[in-house]
């Protein structure tokens, strides 16, 4: 049964205004959400503490910020870091009017810029109070902006035990790399229960391309709940002409027994390790 | 007799004092003995990797013995000399990972009398090794260190200590 109520003309006008207002609000939200995806940047050195000056190099060619000559960084630290204070950079004074200290430096070619900063200075926190940071790049008024960057971690100044550890902590493409699995620090059931058998390693070059099929390394037991594997990136793969390896991923694989006592293959989390340019 | 006795004592004391004058000896061996000691064929016997940055920060896990990780003992290094001076070198990696970026070329030292660093050169590529001690009759091993430096910050990150025997 459909009931028809008489429509009051006044109500009709109010509804129309509400509808228009809703459209405007939605449009505003959509406009704000239209950030520009951007990942074409590098940070040197590849690993850094909160006390190291870093140089960020950006290339906006082919992005929505291409052609812009004045761009600014907007940055923040420790977002979501347990036990640490979230803090915005000294560059974040006014979204609609970024200050000169936030301005990127043109790098000589169109759409290419650099920006240098030191974590402790940028976020006005002690080195031990900084875990990671993120940023976005914007026009002065904020009319255009990139999306939030991925989290970039500061190299810790105090030793933090981890389930998966690389030795040495910073390695280059020609170095002997020791991959460690500290099973005693494992927090997931699979990692705690697994009998490690191998390590899967994949190396990537500076174009982001994989250097080849992932390699499988044998695992050695190096003591109570400690497992190791070794490799040299340039011994396992050869970089292409004019290319260099910039990072690799690894995970330990092993077996656990299911409810029927049958072996099941499981793996640890995949860890991404940057390779440092050495001389 | 008493006077003669005192005189004898004084003379003996005088002789003892004057005889204690230090003598100046010329250095044993020629100028290039250390070059000669370094020269020749050497087999790699021990490799240690040190995480210099972690060591500097006081972190645990700073060194690792790599000797048995790869077939390092198959690597052979040869320093040739010409007229007592460093000339050419060759590195036969065997089945070991390379310890330098070049395997042949010329070598030189910073100071022929007491060398502290060895420079290997091939074309435009130059690599430096720090000497850990000269091989001699007591310790016949050749010890060299290769330090890997972060290109962006110039900070030493990793050191490899190589020990060679004849």
Describe the structure.
The complex is a heterodimer of chains A (279) and B (166). Chain A has 279 residues and is of the alpha+beta class. Chain A folds into 2 domains: 113 residues, Immunoglobulin-like (Sandwich); 111 residues, Immunoglobulin-like (Sandwich), CATH 2.60.40. In chain A, strands 11, 12, 15, 16 and 17 form a 5-stranded antiparallel beta sheet that branches. In chain A, strands 1-2-6-5 form a 4-stranded antiparallel beta sheet. A 4-stranded antiparallel beta sheet of chain A has the order 4-3-7-8, with no helix packed on it. In chain A, strand 13 and strand 14 form a beta hairpin. The model of chain A has no long low-confidence stretch (mean pLDDT 89). Chain B is of the alpha+beta class and 166 residues long. Chain B has a single domain, classed as Beta Barrel (Lipocalin). Chain B has 3 helices and 9 strands, in the order H-H-E-H-E-E-E-E-E-E-E-E. An 8-stranded antiparallel barrel of chain B has the order 1-3-4-5-6-7-8-9. Chains A and B meet through loops of A and strand 1 and helix 3 of B.
Short description:
In chain A, 14% of the residues lie in helices and 33% in strands.
Rounded to an integer in angstroms, the radius of gyration calculated over CA atoms of chain A is 25 Å
Mean pLDDT of chain A: 89
The string of secondary-structure elements of chain A, in order, is: HEEEEEEHEEEEHEEEEHEEE
Number of domains of chain B: 1
Query: Which protein chains are joined by the largest interface, and how many residues does each one contribute?
Result: A-B, 25 and 25 residues
Measured as a percent range, the helix fraction of chain B is: 10-25%
The number of distinct helices of chain A, counting runs of at least 4 residues, comes to 4
Q: What quaternary form is this?
A: heterodimer
Q: Characterize the largest beta sheet of chain B: strand count, sense, and whether it forms a barrel.
A: 8 strands, antiparallel, barrel
Question: Any idea what the CATH architecture of chain B is?
Answer: Beta Barrel
State mean pLDDT of chain B (0 to 100 scale): 86
How many DSSP-defined strands of chain A? 17
Query: Overall 3D geometry of chain A?
Result: globular
Look at the structure and give the CATH class of the largest domain in chain A.
Answer: Mainly Beta
Question: Could you please say which CATH topology of the largest domain in chain A applies here?
Answer: Immunoglobulin-like
**Which class of secondary structure composition applies to the elements of chain B?**
alpha+beta
Strand content of chain B: 35-45%
Low-confidence stretches of chain B are none
Beta-strand percent range of chain A: 25-35%
User: What is the helical fraction of chain A, as a range of percent?
Assistant: 10-25%
Q: Could you say what the CATH topology of chain B is called?
A: Lipocalin
